[in-house]
Amino acid sequence: MSGCGFLSRGAAALAAAATAVRASRVPRIFTGTHRRLHTSLQSCSFAKELFLGNIEQKGVFPFPEISQDELSEINQFVGPVERFFTEEVDSRKIDQEGKIPVDTLEKLKSLGLFGIQVPEEYGGLGLSNTMYARLGEIISMDGSITVTLAAHQAIGLKGIILVGNEEQKAKYLPKLASGEHIAAFCLTEPASGSDAASIQTRATLSEDKKYFILNGSKVWITNGGLASIFTVFAKTEVVDSDGSIKDKITAFIVERDFGGVTNGKPEEKLGIRGSNTCEVHFENTRVPVENVLGEVGGGFKVAMNILNSGRFSMGSVVAGMLKKLIELTAEYACTRKQFNRNLSEFGLIQEKFALMAQKAYVMESMTYLTAGMLDQPGFPDCSIEAAMVKVFSSEAAWQCVSEALQILGGSGYMKDYPYERFLRDSRILLIFEGTNEILRLFIALTGLQHAGRILTSRIKELKRGNVTVVMESIGRKLRDSLGRTVDLGLTGNLGVVHPSLGTIVEEQLVLKRVANILINLYGMTAVLSRASRSIRIGLPNHDHEVLLANMFCVEAYFQNLFSLSQLDKFAPENMDDQIKKVSQQILEKRAYICAHPLNRTS
Amino acid sequence: MGWVQASLLVRGLSRGWGSICSTALSRAATTQVSLQAPRGLHCSAVIHKDDVSLVPRPPEPQRKPIKVPVLHEELFTPSATGEKDKASFLRALRSFEEHSVRKRGHVDFIYLALRKMPEFGVERDLSVYNLLLDVFPKEIFRPRNIIQRIFVHYPRQQECGISVLEQMERYAQVDLELLCCGAKPVLGLLIYVSSRPECWDYSSFICTGVMPNTETEFLLTQIFGRTSYPMLKFLRMKLWLTRFKNINPYPVPRDLPQDPLDLAKLSLRRMEPDLSAKVTVYQMSLPSDSTGTDPIQPHIVGIQSPDQQAALARHNPSKPVFVEGPFPLWLRNKCVYYHILRADLPLPEEEKVEEIPEEWNLYYPMKLDLEYSRSGWDNYEFDLDEVTEGPVFAMCMAGAHDQATLVKWIQGLQETNPILAQVPVVFRLARSTGELLTTSRLEEQSPPHGSPRDQEEDALQAQPQQG
Fold this sequence. Notes:
The complex is a heterodimer of chains A (602) and B (467).
Chain A: H1 2-14, H2 19-23, H3 46-51, H4 57-60, H5 68-87, H6 91-97, H7 102-110, H8 129-139, H9 143-156, H10 158-163, H11 166-178, E1 183-186, E2 202-205, E3 211-222, E4 229-239, E5 245-255, E6 261-263, E7 277-288, E8 292-293, H12 299-309, H13 314-335, E9 337-338, E10 341-342, H14 347-374, H15 383-408, H16 410-413, H17 419-427, H18 436-464, H19 467-481, H20 508-537, H21 542-567, H22 576-589
Parallel strand pairs in A: 1-4
Antiparallel strand pairs in A: 2-3, 3-7, 4-5, 5-8, 6-7, 9-10
Helix pairs in contact in A: 1-20, 1-21, 5-8, 8-13, 13-14, 13-15, 14-15, 14-20, 14-21, 15-17, 15-18, 15-20, 18-20, 20-21
Chain B: H1 2-15, H2 17-20, H3 28-33, H4 86-99, H5 106-120, H6 126-134, H7 146-150, H8 155-170, H9 177-181, H10 187-194, H11 214-224, H12 229-245, H13 260-271, E1 278-283, H14 288-291, E2 300-304, H15 306-314, E3 321-331, E4 334-343, E5 392-398, H16 403-416, E6 425-429, H17 436-443, H18 454-466
Parallel strand pairs in B: 3-6
Antiparallel strand pairs in B: 1-2, 2-5, 3-4, 4-5
Function (chain B): As part of the MCIA complex, involved in the assembly of the mitochondrial complex I.
Pfam family, one (chain B): ECSIT_N
Family (chain B): Belongs to the ECSIT family.
């Protein structure tokens, strides 16, 4: 709890100077030396350490920077892409016709946007995650194009980059990078959303052992109608180490030309209507064994890696959209007059701008912090951070787009303005790439698993009477009592895992709160880090950043306090039992069961 | 109610403990003895308590000992038409008023009329109760001074008034299902029940019956005044009956469907908590007259939920499943019988441990493989011994309880549950229906359907023959 306090106090003091520095234990982290991003070797486990109550400052302070060369490089890309999007892309038409025009797609291909992260030797742009995020901001001006591109490269061809062998990369990546082939990611099935065990699509090895025969249907495949290369997940029979035959998931690269690949008609959707979403059927499709992605039976890990790696970019996409929205709505608010005053003079309208700016600032900070972590050498595991960015940014997007529409009032509801389209488009953000509910569980459980392993081993040592561990614990307690360290309050009074955590997997309401706290903590860290850097290097309007950072930190601090108090089972703030009871009663009857207010008994 | 307490106090002081026994809260002791005891001034209401039977079947008037001299019986003798309905009942009321202008013997008449109400089928009609109250002469029994108010003024008339209200309450429908469904008794319910000794046998009950209305209130104030016992009773009814009206979370419709098929559907739905369960009519009942010499075909209705279907599909085919029954189910005053298809609890070693597959959830870990190294001190749970029963796979209600009929049910089930073709089905049918077996055997060694309660079930069976 004092952790939140630390962050909030730090935030409040930021206006004067980077007091947060003093509150933290590392004496001087802003020494002014220009840290080269690509030289740090420490592994990325900021979020996991957060679960143990430690703030791993090395990973997050100072805010990651890119070199001047890289900056000018990315600016070269950004210019033409931005021009193309503002001048040539007609989002309204795309939305109405439910299709991205061919020439727009061609132009996107020629800009290289289909191979942003494909390494240069395979004909892609080979951009780092940070630069990918930067481009995402521009692309976000049209939701349909964003989703089409994301489905192509964030998940569609990501498998080949991540686990593909040399032949596969050489064979497929160049054409995919140029956009000649479009990729699609085929995982979801009618009976299988996040439940991998219920995948029905099956691949059976042919008798000559050269082919897999693929049969099954996949639903809601983005780019399903356009794609010629599919990353398909199917069950295969695998001989286990103990000799038994088991069904395991395997990933395949499937070309449309293999035959037997058909797709249904594009689905009618609420938003992102220009993107192509449809069913894809595989009927006796013969997939050569060399097209197995990764190992046979190793598809589960492949799918998990692809999904985990694709998420962080949503933060910058939403931030880009919000920045655009702020421009549009500010224009309106400063010109529309009511009672002889501009809308911009009304406090309730001003509030909405502050909210949008704050959310955009936080998600931007989180995204680039995460991107910076991901760009560190090795394969840093930033899946929790990426999931946090996704959850935060998608929810902020929905909230902010709705507020932006509200500023316009009735006009916002009309199709003449783009706001309703933004609203429809942004709704999918909370759903795809793992629904936010599932991601919250992922954040909380992965973190708790990490913390639990370390803490249970510590308990074991304590029980065994390991003197150093005992002394360490006592020492830590002593230091804690002197108020010098940060205890995030997540590990209980004794600093151990609470016994009731055995059933924690089932306590979804608790997990949600843990995830919310962690997301807030990560957001606070990101804005503090970024705002401190802005002050230090004297970026323009850094005082504005400090205001935003302060606003967010205070708000998040109180939210966290509330969530922490709710974690106590018997706290008055904790309504879990009642919530569960109410929903049980409703679900038992499958209806709203209150009597009508007009009912009488006599 | 300050005045009530005050009057009770005064009465207690003046008459001692004995009279207090006659007050509402302690009628239990007197209920038993007063059947034979001469009707005292203050326990005259008690004498009619024997009418009170809170079992779901309507009280049979002729069984009740008639203590009151049958003064006005002739008024209720069926007229030429022989119809016993509301009109003739009202005619009787009117003829009493014509018969005795001064309303002599109106208390006896009202008691008689109360007993006759079920016969005329007006026991649930509020307007009839109001008319009955209207028989009382007005203004005479109203207490006019403080002394009259403290001591019960015209006790016999007041108690007669209370009887009218009590009968309204009694025909409030009583749901014995509450006993089974385990509705939580509210405090008020307990207080109310404790004030009604006749309900002490039933730990909880429910009234949805005749609710007095403002006209009743108006009549009572006219007859007995605001500060009287019938008025108190009225206020209590107003207070509690509304609260009890919807206390049953599983209400039974007041008018049960007459068609045995509909009744069976209703009962099955009532027993099956899963709303996804599907009711299937395996066989319609065929009336005997249309088929002529063919044997009558009883109806067979079954219910099975998707979960039960899945459980049956998982059933080990080498183990038998059992058709058991008939078991009784009471719906208001009707008893229906059902059969279940069940299996024995699988042996512990046979039970497949549901493992969490390693690669199951694409997004988050389904279990944290942590070693908590817990000891007994970390177990906060209460020690509960839960007796698990074998799974029930389906339920059915049929017009006949013989094996031939139930085989048809199993055959019908087989269409949706192909595993039944491989599983041995054992019929374990009781020769009679449930708890009635013992009485019928003990008393008369009669064939199973001879017991009185089976008549309804027989009627159920017989209906297809008649219809």
